[in-house]
Amino acid sequence: TLPYSITAIEDEAFDYAKSIEKLIIPENVSEIGSKAFANCPFSNFKLSEDNPYFESVDGVLYTEDMTTLVAYPMLKSDEIYDIPDTVTTIHGGAFYCSEYVLYVDIPESVTRIEESAFESSSITSAVISESVEYLGGHAFAWCDILSLTLYPVEEMEIMYTYNGPFYGCSDLEHCTYIIPDGTTEFNGVPY
């Protein structure tokens, strides 16, 4: 159990803490950093009933207003996950190393997919709609993506830190990129 006095869980705070099987997020925690629970063997996230900042829905951690998907449990057994259409941001490292989810339905409400959001996860299929304005570095790095549909728009900001959002993906040959009519370059790169 974490102390009541903790107000923030920093980036990568419990990274590779494989001996922690259960964790209850205290009521005063109002901030959770990127990849805070990376490689933690959780099948669900639990939080104090008195925490006004976060919500756990079917074991998945969201901000209280359900606009940010903060963390998806590494050992959650669902192969398909539908993100609620209230979500606008997929937090950095949210699905990092999730072992079972193969497809995540990313609704058009999502405008930001932050750094390492799906990195090293088991996801094999993704559709990134034209509503996404920001695609973070390593967002899908080291995934065995077999099917990717990307609807890039001129305004989409793609971060190429750490070699880009699809770094280390083994098979992007079968991916579909839907290019808007009249587009001659994307993020400064000519088509």
Structure description:
With 191 residues, this protein is mostly beta strands. 0% of the residues lie in helices and 25% in strands. The protein is built from no helices and 18 strands. It has strands spanning 8-9, 24-25, 31-32, 46-47, 54-57, 60-63, 68-71, 80-82, 89-90, 103-105, 112-113, 125-128, 134-135, 147-150, 157-158, 176-177, 185-186, 189-190. The strands form six sheets. The chain has a seven-stranded mixed sheet, with no helix packed on it. It is globular, with a radius of gyration of 17 Å.
Q: Percent of residues in helical segments? A: under 10%
What's the alpha carbon Rg, rounded to whole Å?
17 Å
Quote the distance from N terminus to C terminus: 53 Å
Name the overall outline: globular
Structural class, from helix and strand content? Answer: mainly beta
Share of residues in strands:
25-35%
Spatially, the strands of the biggest sheet line up as 5-6-7-9-11-13-15
Number of strands: 18
Low-confidence stretches: 184-191
Helical run tally: 0
Largest sheet: 7 strands, mixed
Overall mean pLDDT? 84
**Can you write the helix and strand succession as a string?**
EEEEEEEEEEEEEEEEEE
